[in-house]
Amino acid sequence: MSASDQENVRFSKGLEGIVAAESSVGYVDGLAGKLVYRGYDVNTLVENCDYEEVSYLLLNGELPNREQYKDYSSSLRKKRQLDNDTLNLIRDLKDTHPMSALRTVISFIGARDNRSIEPDLETQKSISIDLIAKIPSVVAAINRAHNSKEFISPDDDLPFSSNFFYQALGRRPDKDEAKMIDEALILHADHGMNASTFTSMVVISTLSDMYSAVTAAISSLKGPLHGGANERALALIQRVGKPENAEKVISNMIASKEKIMGFGHRVYKVYDPRAKILKKFVETVTKKNGQENLFLTAEKIENIMAQTLGSKGIFPNVDFYSGLLYYSVGFDPSIFTPIFAVGRISGWTARSLEYLSDNKIFRPRGMYVGNRGPKEFIPIDDRQ
Ligand code: ACO
Questions:
Q1: Is the CATH number 2.60.40.10 carried by domain 229-328?
Q2: pLDDT digits (tens, 9 = 90+) for 147-160
Q3: What is the pTM of this model?
Q4: Which residue numbers are catalytic?
């Protein structure tokens, strides 16, 4: 790029404020604190639908009627079971971080699927449905292996989220837990052009395949500034330990310019609507399980953050309460981010398919800020 080439380009660090694609999958209103999937407010969806309906909505644009729901649900159930090679790989990876294991296993499943090299929409949609069905079983098996427990086969009588809970924890959820895990997965299903979704779209835009797009998205979700924040948010709540300690710990962190995990968001400058819904569950579940102290500590951290950084638009994001919620029903912290992927798989695939249907390879420009030269060339033996 020449100097004159660069005169009219706008640089925005982290692509902040840059519109990179059109989409009708979902919408985040960061100032009103609203999250919309295909026109429906997420609050309406969590109150009235289950994850399978929402997944269908994201992929197809409309909520399913009774028959479509039955077909979609039964096709997901048929594809849940993992083969022995995949389970053996998961066993071999039992000591790696579950997000690294998840990335490797999805890539492995893709490498053995001959369809994956076909870039046409229909094939990629069919792979998407396979992935939506299989990711919960993969994450559940990773959790079992990581904790040196036996794998559990899917229960065909259980819907998507309850079956995931069962395969991961080895017990069927009670009514409250079933509602909690289903709502949590719905709330994670899509969220605009976040880093992992954008990653999956960049990969699919090269006419690669859905396995590659999702493998890359998992790699992107892993980072502590994105999906990895939930594990660290819980660690902070546990470190603070009780409400009385919160003031000192949080003030010291803010004074030393440390980021408080589970707070702040590129788009939301008000309370993240997902955190609001999850917080209610956390209060109920921790009370029931005798862990209310953790909830009260989290709430105290939230209040201190609101007083100190609320004026900057920094409030709890989805990761602040999700980790505490999963922990309080028995999930290991290392599995929190993979659970995020179990929900987000519908958004990744829906947006990648949407992009593929009117594809243009992503290719932004970089702003060259180096020496424009020409520098004098010095032969290698004469260099200092
Ligand atoms: N704790 C303390 N200060 C914060 C926090 C935080 N969690 N988040 C932002 N700030 C401050 C920054 O220090 C910065 O202050 P300054 O203006 O004095 O320099 C200002 O707010 C703007 O912050 P940026 O990091 O520039 O905002 P950006 O939009 O780039 O980042 C992000 C958003 C990455 C989410 C950030 O808020 C953060 O690091 N949060 C903690 C990690 C986290 O919870 N991630 C999960 C996000 S939700 C998700 O991905 C599912």
A1: no
A2: 999 999 999 999 99
A3: 0.92
A4: 226, 265, 319
